[in-house]
Design goal:
Three copies of one chain form a homotrimer.
Chain A: H1 2-8, H2 25-35, E1 43-45, E2 58-63, E3 66-71, H3 77-82, E4 89-93, H4 117-132, E5 143-146, E6 158-160, E7 163-171, E8 177-182, E9 193-196, E10 199-202, E11 215-219, E12 224-229, H5 234-238, E13 245-248
Parallel strand pairs in A: 1-3
Antiparallel strand pairs in A: 2-3, 2-4, 4-5, 6-7, 7-8, 7-13, 8-12, 9-10, 11-12
Helix pairs in contact in A: 1-4
């Protein structure tokens, strides 16, 4: 993918991460939504594509002066929405041909492979969008506006039996467990305790609010409730993984 | 290594991968052969060097306007051959001195260490080749043409007993098992089934041609037969690792 | 963090590593001391910060034309000392406000989070120091010289009972075990044998001085005694991890 990009543009390539949870569109969309708004306007290429080769088209999403390029599986929509208070624009990229094209020189994309659209479709699109300019991306052949695209939804936490039922959205590299529960729900308890799936756990402003290797609940940099261990792994201590339920009371 | 490069050149550094299988020259040569031809002409630095410190010299391989810098253990030859339909040129880099030289300022390389030639020999060579220019690399002191260099050979799959005996060349980060069997051998069976080491497995154009968590055989983006699981790990499902035999019928 | 940096500067970002041992300040300081002096003068941003959110301030260390930015927990001091034969200068970065500031536009830093000072404090500082210039970093508002800062000490190996008692400082990605014992202590034994925690092990100039999968002792590129296995993992073979004692005789 970087080779194709280098053939199409001289701009600096920035590796944001190679560590998204494999094949997990929703958790990756969550991370992108946290990360992309901190960048200045740019072309962002993101590929988490368990459905590669199913005929699903590539999309480009324009929002707030940025362009996001990737698969039409919902991945790009939450970060695009976080880039603007206005509306987002979605464009579909035509893919056609007999697969004989060189990805760096053929346009619209004519994927040589059925399993590596990152190289054959998404990187060529990102390079060309960058060179055309985000404002002019719709002047590229084969790119056209669409209102029909996939969404990904983050689950909303539920109030039930005087408590909250949330879900684990993501686990970061340190093992911190990021839930879908808004931090505002526990803000009043900072300094006190709450019950997490039956166990009483201190609520602290920061990891260091408890001793090393002690569990805590905190509000992460993303604004959501996080289950953590000071200098340890929250996922191990709380025994949860992405998609699991978490009961707070 | 990047520090030395930054001392010698202002050009953009692109991280291609830090994920090659450690110490495995052949699998790394396979990956380089797949990746490097997608780049525009550049200086490529690659170090997979289980024999570091044995006195083996560094080489520079020139092919198709690119230069590849690394150890003389065969690693660079398959990607170099993939860069040109003509011939490749191999140059040997003299290494000498008492080890007191600073790698950024001493030339030819005078390695301070016996165990980190990436820093002391290969990075200084790559930086200087870049600054001299690929066309002029043989004007650098201590670099001379050679016809004596190591090759690495990829095993060829064998027709035997009405079937094919192949070998696992590499496993990618998703667990897809890449064999040495050319995709042309199974192209006629796409949509049908073949036997893999005794089990009947569907042959599909793409991972999504079977249900999630189902095994399949496909032709990868590299053109070789791949053993995979849709949204899962083929290496686990087929129970194979790099170097293992695979029987197709 | 990269997003914030890209908002503040157009300079090339170089990823040195994302592989430091998590939360281990001392081992990370060791690696930084090995790596940073190979770079030309630059702004280096390093975050290993088990105490994030405890109120500890950010520091900038100026040494040899470089600036190092990170937490005041000792991490930056060994690499800074390795950059100059003169003295180092340490500056404290004021952090204040109500947490409502955008990290790219607010200065001095006003962290929006208690758990991600990399994004909210260190990256904004590194970007601004780069743009101000290392020589002028003290002209930035909120940055002031200090002589009160944390140190990290590497343990010194001990001569005891006719042998040496050292400690494992770090284990590299190949499994090579890096001790605090200076290579000079074993230089006379290269080509012979020494006892490591009771077992006789060959001392060799390079990994390839023994057969593949055989253990050896060598002097690493950092100048310290290393316990290794040719083409294998020394940490497994010697059964040691960071912080463990090693007895040499």
């Amino acid at each position: 993918m970087k080779g194709i990009l280098c053939q199409l543009t001289d701009t600096q390539l920035i590796d944001v991460t190679h560590g998204f949870p494999r094949q997990n569109v929703r958790a990756s969309a969550f991370w992108l939504r946290e990360v992309i708004p901190h960048f200045p306007p740019a072309v962002h290429l993101a590929v988490v594509d368990p459905g590669v080769g199913t005929g699903r088209k590539a999309i480009v999403v324009r929002a707030g002066g940025h362009a996001l390029v990737g698969p039409d599986n919902g991945l790009l929509i939450p970060p695009a929405r976080a880039l603007t208070e206005g509306s987002i624009e979605v464009f579909r990229v035509a893919v056609s041909g007999d697969g004989s094209g060189d990805p760096a020189t053929t346009w619209p994309p004519d994927p040589a492979s059925s399993t590596f659209h990152g190289r054959d479709v998404f990187a060529p699109t990102a390079g060309r969008v960058h060179e055309a300019g985000v404002d002019s991306l719709d002047t590229l052949a084969g790119i056209e506006h669409t209102d029909s695209y996939e969404r990904v939804r983050f689950p909303v936490c539920q109030h039930r039996d005087g408590g909250l039922v949330g879900e684990v959205l993501a686990v970061d590299g340190f093992g911190n467990v990021i839930t879908n529960v808004p931090g505002t729900e526990i803000r009043a308890h900072v300094g006190g305790q709450i019950e997490v799936s039956g166990d009483s756990v201190p609520v602290r402003r920061t990891y260091a609010g408890v001793d090393p290797n002690e569990s805590l609940v905190t509000i992460g940099s993303h604004g959501n409730v996080e289950l953590a261990v000071n200098q340890g792994r929250g996922d191990d201590a709380f025994g949860v993984a992405v998609g699991d339920s978490v009961h707070l009371r």
